[in-house]
Specification:
The chain is an alpha+beta fold. The protein has five helices and seven strands; from the N terminus they run H-E-H-E-E-H-E-H-E-H-E-E.
């Protein structure tokens, strides 16, 4: 048998060219994959999970202040009849605030303790339906928020409070809580408010504003979180909000 070497050489040359072309194409494909990250090294120990961005307020639930700082004293007036309406408005005596607001209030408590003082809270989160009842009784925007716009209390971003000594006694203040008179205003200069009461009110304002709270001119006991507008209005009863 005669071997046609020319034919064999032609076939071999064709195979070399074909394989070379395939290798070049595959190299280009792999290189492109490396550039795009498709062929990058995959570590099974590292799993990155991406979560969509969410509004700030959704990351801040209402929390019980005594779970954040149990040293803070409560006297939730609207859970009793000892308030300006003389009616119990809350079924449970709880102080609920947005997480960051509660944490800042805890810092105020910690700042006061070396002085032998502490905080006593009268009101925190307030359901919008309660604000409507208050507005019906006292439709004065100096003291009660118009429910058409809502209150900062309805957002869990406001607190009413006073100072107490180491034995739990309230420090003298210009008026009692929810005293809707000129004497409750921070700029009141009448002689029927003692210097001691005025100094105590100023101390409360100073320690609260140092943690970023905003005081209300007409009520010495009221303070708002500086970012209160970040939180939505709520109308959920205190007992419906899960504890813990």
């Amino acid at each position: 048998m005669k071997i046609n070497y020319i034919l064999l050489f032609s076939v071999a040359l064709g195979l070399v060219i074909t394989i070379g072309s395939w290798q070049r194409a595959e190299s280009v494909r792999i290189f492109d994959g490396l550039k795009s990250g498709e062929w990058g090294p995959q570590s099974p120990a590292v799993v990155v999970q991406r979560t969509p961005a969410i509004p700030q307020f959704e990351g801040e639930n209402l929390v019980d202040i005594q779970e954040i700082n149990p040293d803070i004293t409560l006297d939730i007036r609207y859970a009793t009849a000892n308030n300006f309406l003389n009616v119990q408005l809350y079924s449970v005596p709880r102080c609920l605030l947005r997480t960051s607001v509660a944490q800042k209030l805890s810092l105020v408590q910690e700042q006061l303790q070396p002085m032998g003082l502490g905080l006593k809270i009268f009101d925190c989160y307030r359901p919008l339906s309660v604000t409507r009842k208050m507005w019906e009784a006292l439709p004065d925007p100096r003291y009660v928020a118009n429910p058409a716009r809502g209150s900062r209390h309805n957002r869990g971003a406001a607190v009413d409070l006073t100072l107490i000594d180491a034995w739990g006694n309230e420090l003298e203040m210009p008026t009692d809580f929810d005293d809707f008179s000129d004497r409750a205003a921070r700029d009141y200069q009448g002689t029927d408010v003692s210097n001691q009461a005025r100094q105590n009110s100023q101390l409360l304002e100073r320690v609260m504003t140092q943690q970023g709270f905003i005081s209300l001119i007409t009520e010495w006991w009221h303070f708002d979180a500086e970012n209160w507008q970040d939180y939505p209005l709520l109308d959920i009863s205190l007992e419906e909000i899960n504890e813990g």
